[in-house]
Amino acid sequence: MRSISHNWSSSFGLGSGASITTLLKACKSSEQLKQVHASIIYRGLEQDHFLISLFIPLSHTLSTLYYTSSVFLRVLTPSTFLWNTLIKSHCHNSCFSQTLSSFTRMKAHGALPDTFTYPSVIKACSTTCKPREGKSLHGSAFRCGVHRDLYVATSLVDMYGKCGLIADARRVFDGMSKRSVVSWTAMLVGYVAVGDVVEAEKLFGEMPQRNVASWNAMLQGFIKAGDLSGARDVFDAMPEKNVVSFTTMIDGYAKVGDMVAARFLFDRATGKDVVAWSALISGYVQNGQPNQALKVFFEMESMNVKPDEFILVSLMSASAQLGHLELAQWVDSYVSKSCIDVQQDHVIAALLDMNAKCGNMDRASKLFEERPKRDLVLYCSMIQGLSIHGRGEQAVNLFNRMLMEGLYPDEVAFTVILTACSHAGLVDEGWNYFQSMKQKYYISPSPDHYACMVDLLSRSGHIRDAYELIKLMPEPHAGAWGALLGACKLYGDSKLGEIVANRLLQIDHLNAANYVLLSDIYATSERWIDVSLVRSKMRERRVRKIPGCSKI
C-alpha cells in the first residue's frame, strides 16, 4: 500500500509545487486524501478557507465523520462560507443530527448564518420530521432577515408540509413575493402528504409552470387517495415521464390487485431502477403471487441489478408464503452473503418469519434468542411459527414470556395467540386471553378475535357456547359462522346446523362450501328431501362446487 501511495503522490509531484486543488480532485481513496492533508499541513495551509472547503466534502465521502470534524476544528476562525460547507456536507451525506449541531456551534462561535445556511439545516428538520426545531429555525431566519429569500422560504414550505403543518406551509407560501416551480411543488407535496387531494388538485391547476416532480406529486396524491382513475388521467397527460412516474403507477395498480397492468407498465418503463423492481416484486407478494415475485427477482438478478433491503424483505415474504424449506434456506444464505445490514429490525423480522413459516424452527429460535431486544413483531412471528407447526403449548409459554418482559400485546398479537390456542385446542387459555383483552388491556375484540374464539370452542366440541358467543359479535363474520357450521356437521348437531346455515347463507350466499356442509348435515340425519332442496337452491342461484385438488 505504501509503494502504491508513493507512486500516486510522485505522479502528481506532491513534494513539488503541484496545486493542492488538483491533488484534491484526483483523490480516490482515504489514503490519498490523508497524503494531501499532510501536504496541506506541511505547507501551512490549514487556515486556507478555500482549500478546507474543498477538502471537507471529499473527506465526508472518502473518510469518516470524525476525521472530517477534526480537520474543520483545526480552523481557528471559520467563516460563514466554511460553516456552510460543513453544514451542507453533513446534510448531503444524511448526517442530519450533525447538520443541526453544526448550526448550533456556528451561532455559538459568532458566525452569522445567511441564505446558504438555512436551506440545508431546514432540510435536516424536514427529513427527520422535527417541526419544533424547524419552527425555531424559521424564527432564526426571520431575525436574520433572510426568511423571504426564495430558497429559504421554499425550504420552510417543504419542511412544514412534510411535518404535517399544512397551514404553516400555506402561510409561508402565500407570503412569498416570488415563487419558483420548486416552491409550488413543495406546497403540492405538502397537501399530498396530509392526504388533501382536493387542495392539491386545485393548486396543481393554478401552477404557472410544472416539471416532472410536480406531475409525480399529483400522481402520488391520487394513488394515496385510492383514485386510480384520476391517477391514470394524470399519467396519460404527462408531457414527460420518468422512472418515478412509472413506479408510482405500478404501486397504484398493485394496491388494487391489478398485477397485469402493473407488469405492463413495468415493461414499458425506461431506465428501471431498484425501486421500480421493488415495487413490482412487493406487488406480487402483497397479492399472494409468490411464484411471480420469485420469477421477477431472478429476472432482475440476470440483469445484474443488485437488490436492496426492501427487495430482500419481499423475497423472504414470498418464500414464507410458499412454505418451501429448501427455498427458505437458500434465501437465508443469500441474504447473509449480501451487503445489506442484516441486523436491521425489519430484515431480522422477515428472516425469522420466513424460517418459522417454512418449518426451520431451530434457525428461527436462534435468530430470536440472539436478538438483544425483542419487540412485538418478533414475538408474534415466533408464536405464529410455533402455532403453525403444532407447538401450541410452546406458543402460549412464549406469549406469557412476552408479557413477563413488559411488552403490551396489540390486536394482532391477540389474533396470533388465539389462533394458536384454537389449533392446539387450549380452550381455557384462549378464553382467558380473550377476556383479558377488554378487562386488562382495554382492547375491544374485533370480528377476527370473535372468529378465533368461535373456531376454538367449535373445534373443542363446545358448539352451544360458540353459538352464544357468535350472537354477541358486533358484526357478522362469515368465517366464524362457517367454523361453527363445520363443527355442527362434525358433532352431528343437525338442529343447530340448520340455524347456523340459514344465517350463513344470508351473509355469504355464493359460497358453495356452505351449501355442501348443510347438505352433508341433512344427509347424516337421513333428511333426503332437505338434501334435494339444498341442491335445488344451489342450481337456482347458479352456485357450483369447485373441485378439490392437491399440490405437492
Automatic annotation (TrEMBL):
Transmembrane segments: none annotated. One of its GO terms (molecular function) is endonuclease activity. PPR repeats lie at residues 79-113, 180-210, 211-245, 273-307, 375-409, 410-444. Keywords: Endonuclease, Hydrolase, Nuclease, Repeat. Pfam families: E_motif, PPR, PPR_2. One of its GO terms (biological process) is RNA modification. Belongs to the PPR family. PCMP-E subfamily. This is Structure-specific endonuclease subunit SLX1.
